[in-house]
Automatic annotation (TrEMBL), chains A, B:
Keyword flag Oxidoreductase: yes
Pfam families hit by this protein: ADH_N_2, ADH_zinc_N
Protein name from the UniProt record: Double-bond reductase 1
Keywords: Oxidoreductase
Molecular function GO terms recorded: oxidoreductase activity, acting on the CH-CH group of donors, NAD or NADP as acceptor
InterPro entries on file: ADH-like_C, ADH_N_2, GroES-like_sf, MDR_fam, NAD(P)-bd_dom_sf
Domain Alcohol dehydrogenase-like C-terminal: 163-300
Keyword Oxidoreductase found: yes
Ranges where the Oxidoreductase N-terminal domain occurs: 9-110
Length: 341, 341
């Protein structure tokens, strides 16, 4: 395989983005590529199979180095979390044919970074991109490690049917919490209660008063808020938190396309209610990963978990899928299928 | 003593306050009072000796029950943390002549609540109102329990020469942190470095750009922020926090007289930097109090701690002292001396 020239479709990043990104900020191209491992390092080339669309990718379209991960390079493929099959490897940890997850370019053939070999392929392969991938692990770390849950707690999850939210809600329900969620369409709200086991749910776009909606669904207040959206929702949640409440900040997707963030006015409740607000990234908690794989695979096998995905078929559909995710058009975990395993 | 009629000077609360409180929102009166324990309860009457002026008292001037402590009652004396001498007691825990700290009215003779007997009077008595009282205990709990300090951490303290701030800075220095503080006058800034051992300090009123001031004093970023002020300062701090930084929210004195809180824009840094923002109240951590008394009394005896107080002499000076505190006119811990022990 080494030295072979292949046809390599790519999604190139065109320009740094201010405000809402457009599909035209990316470009689908077909190129030729010679498959060659780089010398002087442990290197892996994968055939990309599935790519994950994640809100955090918006941050990498910004011309800013003030984050935990560098920005995209104009003229190069965008990258993200994905699944691939190893086709060339100088890293003894990976053999040709291995299925791996990790960071890779949005193209047919890519160098892989921070790869993890998937040993137990008992579940549908796309699950390893979401429920058993970065999103599921984010939900697991966030809920079990950051939220400090207690049985009987009321947890409220925003973006509750998304890749992370649907897992958080189910983990919380299995753990013994009362689970309330919000999403941006009736279809998603129906999913929350009919499929993911949420006790109550509301469509935030149909609520003129978020504070009133939260008081209706959480009349005794909120013990845990799993924060995915930020902005006005966070402000409404703060005044509804119970004493000693915890807010796990996973992300703030409503803010990612704003050059000036929405103002937050109610942080005085951190003292009144003795709140803990805790931002986290799954990658800081890799020690939890073995437990995560073990438990979540078992819970799926026992039928205790479900997963809803929204898979765009074909690399060329990637830009629309990613832009759609930022606007909440997806129903369930948004990903892009690039090739069959 | 029971049944005696005494002259009882009082500071009455006149009206609920919107915006900045004025001295005229309180009234100094001289009344007569019959000293009588109430039946059916363990009751204590104290001769009030010292009263503490605390920013949290502003909250009790608001017509709102949305806090951890009820509002003041118009027509009744304001109350707060103070020192008193027991003159009548039906509570077996307290005897006539005991010196106690706790909640009491701003008057000569008051029922006492949540009292603690002071056994070891080795230090100046007023210290038991501040350094060894609610403020010192707040600093102790906040620093040792909430801030999760590590040796070598850079800690930044706002309102750093105040009742709480001066103790936090000294605890942090004893613990082995690099300590940076801000205050609102050159006199206070000088105190920080010359008296309390702060490594660096600045006058926030003279800084046109708080972000630049923080970058100058904390060039490698901030591990711990001890939050006393809120508002623009918090927003400037957020972007200067290091990864895994902790913000202990003790109070937000810059916001207490605002009907709408200043907006905060930089909470997206909670994820970028994986920050923990933790609001707390000392009264939730009473299990730490024996350790606090033991350590802090010993550190004072060893000359490792100092304390700067600003004592108004006479109950009638109380309203001006309390209003002055909210405007930052005090230098060090503001209290009111009512009577000699």
């Amino acid at each position: 395989m080494a030295g072979t020239e292949v046809t390599n479709r790519q999604i190139l990043f065109k320009n740094f983005v201010v405000g809402w990104p457009q599909e035209s900020d990316m470009e689908f191209v077909t190129t030729k590529k010679k498959l060659e491992l780089r010398e002087g390092q442990k290197d892996v080339i994968v055939r990309v199979l599935y790519l994950s669309c994640d809100p955090c990718q918006r941050g990498r379209m910004r011309n800013s180095t003030d984050s935990y991960i560098p920005p995209y390079t104009p003229g190069k493929p965008i990258e993200g979390y994905g699944l691939g099959k190893v086709i060339l490897s100088s890293d003894p940890a990976f053999n040709e044919g291995d299925i791996v997850s990790g960071l890779m370019g949005w193209e047919d053939y890519s160098y892989g970074f921070r790869l993890v070999k998937i040993d137990d392929l008992a579940l549908p392969i796309s699950y390893y991109l979401g429920a058993l991938g970065m999103a599921g692990f984010t939900a697991y770390v966030g809920f079990f490690r950051i939220c400090e849950p207690k049985k009987g707690d009321t947890i409220y999850v925003s973006a509750a049917s998304g890749a992370v939210g649907q897992m958080v809600g189910q983990f919380a329900k299995l753990f013994g919490c009362r689970v309330v969620g919000s999403a941006g369409s009736q279809q998603k709200v129906d999913l929350l209660t009919s499929k993911f086991g949420y006790d109550e749910a509301f469509n935030y776009k149909e609520e003129p008063d978020l504070d009133a909606a939260l008081k209706r669904c959480c009349p005794d207040g909120i013990d845990i808020y799993f924060e995915n959206v930020g902005g006005k929702m966070l402000d409404a949640v703060l005044v509804n938190m119970k004493v000693f409440g915890r807010i796990a900040v996973c992300g703030m997707v409503s803010q990612y396309n704003k050059e000036v963030q929405d103002p937050i006015y109610n942080l005085n409740y951190t003292v009144k209610r003795r709140l803990k607000i805790h931002g986290f990234l799954q990658s800081d908690h890799m020690d939890v990963q073995p437990e995560f794989f073990k438990n979540v695979i078992q819970w799926f096998k026992e039928g205790k978990l479900v997963y809803v995905e929204d898979i765009a078929d074909g690399l060329e559909k990637g830009p629309a899928a990613l832009i759609g995710l930022l606007a909440g058009k997806n129903v369930g975990k948004q990903s892009v299928k690039v090739a069959d395993p």
